[in-house]
Each structure stands twice: as structure tokens, then as C-alpha cells.
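Recap for those who missed Tuesday's class. We walked through two folding examples back to back. For each one, the amino acid string is listed first and its predicted C-alpha cells come directly after. Nothing is annotated here on purpose, so try labeling regions yourself before you check the end of the notes.
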Amino acid sequence: MDKKQPHPLFKLATELGPLLVFFAANAKFNLFVATAAFMVAIVAAMIASYVVTRHIPLMALVTGIVVIVFGTLTLVVHDETFIKVKPTIIYGLFATVLGVGLLFGRSFIAIMFDQVFNLTPKGWRLLTLRWALFFLGMAVLNEIIWRTQSTDFWVNFKVFGAIPLTMIFAMMQMPLTKRYHLEPASLEASDAREGDIGKI
């Protein structure tokens, strides 16, 4: 089936909703209850996304799988280390995929971000490099925070630190996307000259 474009508010709710549930549950109960609630919320968000759009974005799917795996380990072993290291795994995985893709001349950022932009091949390469470095930096930052700060501080950073940082970084990429934007009329010509973005 063709995927439908979700309403921006629906997209925001499915992306931020599980994190807000995680924060609220941790504030009222503890990290283990919050982890269980987070797992339920993220599965519900993926189901809702599929029901409404007949599609689950790749980043959301990968994130959901990692959350379920590490959340389950957290609850079974009763060790909060697993859920705390989960963002490091996700960020590191994204950084690795993007970086390895660049080394082999491929730009996977278009797939990860559901191809929301039409860019020239150079634009895709630059955007991929920037996001790979950002994800690497976030992985390092998460490691520093969970290893040196309290659980509550880490949860607050996860909700009120990581999200704003990601949004700010994304907005900082707008000049690049405008500079290398490819009009639909010239997209076919560009593909013929330089190849599909997946063959960069």
C-alpha cells in the first residue's frame, strides 16, 4: 500500500509521546516502571503510525526494536544499565551506518529520514556526514552523562536535553538543504548525470 503523509501533530505525538510517558513514569514511580511504560508506549506509537500511514519510518522501527530489547533486559535482569546504554547503542548504530555508507559511496540519510528532501548528490553527502558526526557526539554525551550523573538527571537530559539538541541541530541544517535543494523538474536530469542518491 502507498504510505500516507501524517499530520505534523500526529508525527510529533508518535515521536515525543513515548519519551514523555517515560519521563512521567520515572517521576511518579521509578526507572523500571518507566522502562515498562516506555516499551508499551513506543509499541503503541509504531502501531498507530502504521494504522494511520501504512508505514513505519526506518529510524522509528530501529529505535523501537532496540528499546524493546534493552528494555526487556533491564526488567529481566533488574539492572538499569541496559536502558541507560540504549541511546548510546542507537546513536552509535546510526553513526556507524551513515559513516560506513559514506566510505562505500552511499548516502543512507535519505532512507533514515524517509526522503523528506530532494538534494543534489553533494548535498546528501554533506548532510550524511554532519548527521553521522552528530550521532557520534550524542553517543559520547550519553555515555558521559549516565556514567557520571544520577538517574533522574539522565532521564531529564534524555527528554529535555537530547530532544532540543536534536531539533536545534536539525534546524541548523536548513541552510544546507536550501543551498543544495533540487527542484523536482531538475531531479531526473541530476539522477541521469550523477546517479541515484543510493548509488552515490
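Example two. Treat it independently of the first, because the proteins are unrelated.
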Amino acid sequence: MTYLGIAYCEKLKWLPERMQELLPSLKELELLDCPEIKSFPEGGMPFDLQQLRIGNCKKLVNRRKEWCLHRLPYLRKLVIEHDGSDEEIEHWELPCSIQRLEVSNLKTLSTQILKSLTSLEDLRIDNLPQNVGRRASLLSFSPHFNA
């Protein structure tokens, strides 16, 4: 299986442990409207994951510092759609392999994070309060910046 989409599972709290072993060929994961998911499996995500989309998974996004996405060398696309209730996080490690980053309704997105994304080609930001007045500096990170 290369794609797994989980949506509208209001009572789902965890993803299965050992996802690397259970789904070694997984390339794309979508988690949508699962408000009770708290974290990714302790063993980590499948190593070959290339696309990750998280939408309206409040508890999971608020704990994004624990995701360890920097351990996914093939991750190319990351999409996060949130409700704006996240805590501010300064140090959030993302893999430099990310080519497309889309975020909406996060309170913060550090320019340090963007500087570390050396493969970034497309950056899309919606409703990020922090980006007001910073659009010019963010444009320097991506030729395809949209705010």
C-alpha cells in the first residue's frame, strides 16, 4: 500500500505502532478531521514517506515538535491545515528534502525553519498571523511564495 487516508475518525487517538514495519511502502499519508489523534507512533513514520497532509487534527498539530519529520529523508510535500490554536514553537525540525510546504492557521512559522529547507520550491501560507509585515522577507525563501 502506497497511500493511506484517514478522515473523520473523531475517536481515533493513535496510529499503529511499528508503522515502518506494517506499511513499509507507504508514500503518502493523509490525516483529516481526527481531533483526538495525539501523536505519531513512537517507532516513527514509514521511512519512504514522501507526502504528509494533516488537516484539522488539533492535538497532533499542537505536538508537532515531537513528530521527528527530520528523520524522513524522502519527504517532499508537507501540508498542515489547522484551527489556529497551536502553541508557539521556535525549534521545529523538518527535513531539508521538502520541496512544497503548505501551512494554514498556524500561529508561528520560524524563518529559521524556512532557511533549513534547502530544496523548497513552493511555499504556501494562509492565515498565519506572524507573516503580516514579513511577506517580503518570506519571498526570498521561495520563488513560488503565496500568502
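Answers for example two:
Helices lie at 19-22, 58-62, 111-116, 135-139.
Strands lie at 3-7, 28-32, 51-55, 77-81, 100-104, 122-126.
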